[in-house]
Amino acid sequence: MKRYFSAALLFLALPTLSFAQVVTPTADAPTAIITGPEEVEVGRTIVLDASASRGVGENPTYKWFKGDSTYPISRSVEAVFTPETAGLVELRVEITSVVNGVTSTIESNRSITVYQRKIILLADSSISADKLNLHLQSAAEAGVFLRVLQPKESAIPLGTEESMYTMINEESATFNGAEAVVLWTEGIKGLQALMRAVENNGDKFESIQNLTIVLITDRSLSTLARTAGGPFTVIRPDQILVTRKEAINPLISASGIDVFKETLQQRDIDSIVVDENSTSIRPWNLLSSLVNYMLTHGVSSQTVILLLMLPIIATILAFFKQVIGITTFGLYTPSIVALSFLALGWQIGLLFLLFILITGYATRAFMRKWRLLYIPKVAIILTVVSLTVLILLGIGAYVGITLSGDTIFVLLIMSTLAESFLQVKSEEGWKAASFGIGETVLAALFCVFIVQWAFLQSLILAYPELILFTVLINIFLGRWTGLRLVEYFRFREVFKHLQEEE
Prior knowledge:
Layout: H1 2-12, E1 39-41, E2 46-49, E3 58-66, E4 78-81, E5 87-99, E6 102-115, E7 118-123, H2 129-141, E8 145-149, H3 159-170, E9 180-184, H4 189-200, E10 212-216, H5 221-227, H6 229-235, E11 239-243, H7 248-253, H8 257-266, E12 271-274, H9 286-295, H10 301-324, H11 332-344, H12 346-366, H13 374-398, H14 405-414, H15 417-428, H16 430-451, H17 454-462, H18 469-478, H19 485-490, H20 492-501
Parallel strand pairs: 1-6, 7-8, 7-9, 9-10, 10-11
Antiparallel strand pairs: 2-4, 3-5, 5-6, 11-12
């Protein structure tokens, strides 16, 4: 029996599983349909309903059976069931009625998972199915119902949190009766998605205030715990426990949260507790308080990260221009391009950038015979570029790539790069324009390579005061009076002659 229950729990915990009735007739044929919960805690009463059945004839009679029993537990359209032991329970309804003068019987089955303990595991797409299956197997062997939620991989970085938020909303009923919610995601994306769901649909997540949230990370615990303070004030769980992935199995095998915390100490597994005592606002952390306020009032963590990363990107570009000597299209343009690559992913960002440049150049070449003034001409180019972006977004939506509003805004700003490219091309020629766009893109890619580090993003999100150091760095760069690195190569012949004369 225990082996059967273990296998059943493992099977039922798969996130893509949906329970369907045994009978799968055509749309016009009579169909028995059971509605009601598919899982219940031991000792809790549930009600299953067959009133949604289709094609039922005159004077129907209902019989509900448990397992292989031939004695009905109910003879009405509803069945009230209170399980006393954990395991997998099969319930069956038989509906007998007269259809077109012929007596017929239709039936449907429903599998009910009865559990003593229930744990929700929200994992992002980076967690492999093999790892999740191992935890499902461990939970089944321990008699614990582990419900795994894992959204599909998003095509863009900003879409990960959105896909988690959508799945949490769709599975809101799953959180009822859970003892703990495990968030195994990158940074606080899972916690942010859960916070948004609770904030927008508080009535659906009332039970979450009585459970423990376990936040799994392989990075700095203190950094993540500091960032989790803002979402804690919105979700209001019993506590948030920031720890390592090695804590998942002890959580499954423990008899309760208190025993689980003691096990972490005994096994020397690092953990930090975030609760009411650790989320108080401190006056010397005003910027951190501002970030937490934004996070807890509907602003996406990815939007906050983009804003906090902009000073770092600008500082890196200032170093490139002042010390190394690269010739980008100013500072604003490569900064926007870097933000676009950071939001979209550099592959999709480069694709959009290529189409924007081609469209801008083709439009300018087509209008050459019209002899228009510069400003109206640029306005037409930007209009055509915007239409091109609109078409690309439509194509992306067709293939399943949907961009958020924040991303589209950054993308439209990136379209101004077409104006810079065409202006340099008309004034200095193809060579200067090509070098300018090439160095702009390379500098933007390098910035993305630096600022996309999850550790750096988590650190800045937890300690936003660190971006103030970029002001000191730029003051130092503003006082730079030495030659740029590129100039040493450009004037190497001059330096060589000067050394010979000496």
